[in-house]
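Quick one: structure for this chain?
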Amino acid sequence: MIRNTRKPGRYQRGGTQVRKKRVCRFCENDTTYIDYKNEKRLQRFVSEQGRVIPKRITGTCSKHQRMLIQAIKRARHLALLPFVSEAVR
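Got it. Here's what it folds into:
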């Protein structure tokens, strides 16, 4: 008897594991505008080096990823977010 050893949320295709597609958290909350002044929310989408995390990792849709990048750039120009992390130097 063969037991199913797969973990929930994952499935195998051709011998490699494929992760379950993430759902956009902005679409779940019906967000129409991403505020550049909410720096705590924007900080989640910026890596330790100060780079924007891609949508394939965060799970945001294309529409909200564009809005997110624009909000991060605005926050950087107003010095709410750093352009580069201080630990990189």
